C-alpha cells in the first residue's frame, strides 16, 4: 500500500529537521507524498516544494493554525493554500509576533519556579526557526531537569501546568476563513485534543462544516482505534474528507516516526487523491 504523511513540522516552526531534510527522510522512508504543516508559518514551504520536485516526491504545501477553544486545544490544518497570499501572510505575521512574546514569559515562569534556564539556551536549540514549547522541553531534558519530553509538558508546559502561557489564537471561524481565502482546504486536526464527548464533538463539527471545514484528521499518532472509528463515522456523516498524519517533529517529539507515528499509523495515498478532488472542486478557485 502506498503511504503518505499529511502532518509534519520542520525547523521553520518546532521540528528538528529542516524542510529539505524532511523531504529526503520521506523519500528514504518510502512515502509517496508528504505535507509540511508548520505552526503558524509557511516559511519552510519554498525549500520543501523545491526539494520534492528535485527528488520526484509529491509534496503538499500546508500550515497548522491555532484557534481559540476554551475546553481544549483546537488546531486547523490548511492544505494546497496559496502561501504567498499577502493578506494571509500579514495575519500569520501577527501570530508569529504573539508567539515571540509568549516564549520569554514561559521562560520567566520556569525561572520563577527555580529552574535554571535562559531564553538564549532555547534559541540555540531552535536552529534559527520559530521557537516553541518543544524547544523549551528539549532544554529541560538536556539539562536533566526532566527525564523526557512528555514529563516536561506534563509537569511544566501543558495547558494548566505552572509554566503554561496562553498564546494569541483566533476564533475557529476566522481560522477556516483565512485558509479558504488563500484557496486552501481547512481540516480539523487531532479531534481528541478538543476534550469533547461524542455528542458535543458532533455538534461542533457540524458548526465547523457550516463555516467551510473540508476534512477531519482521522488517522493520527495518538488516536485510539475507537476514536479513529468514530471520526470516520463523523467524516462520512458530514461528507468531509478523511486525512491523517504523524505530527512528526523529529527529535522534538520523541518516539514518533515519520509516516508511522508510534508504529501504529498507516495513511493510504488514496485519501490524498480524494482530498485533492475536493479541493479542486470546492476550494481551489474560491
UniProtKB/TrEMBL annotation:
The organism's superkingdom is given as: Bacteria
Q: List, alphabetically, the CDD domains matched.
A: PHP_HisPPase_AMP (cd07438)
Give the Polymerase/histidinol phosphatase N-terminal domain ranges.
4-69
Which SUPFAM superfamilies does the annotation name? PHP domain-like (SSF89550)
Question: Where does the record place a coiled coil?
Answer: none
What's a single GO MF annotation on this record? 5'-3' RNA exonuclease activity
Q: Which PANTHER family match?
A: EXONUCLEASE (PTHR42924), POLYMERASE_HISTIDINOL PHOSPHATASE N-TERMINAL DOMAIN-CONTAINING PROTEIN (PTHR42924:SF3)
Q: What is this protein called?
A: PHP domain-containing protein
Native organism: Desulfofervidus auxilii
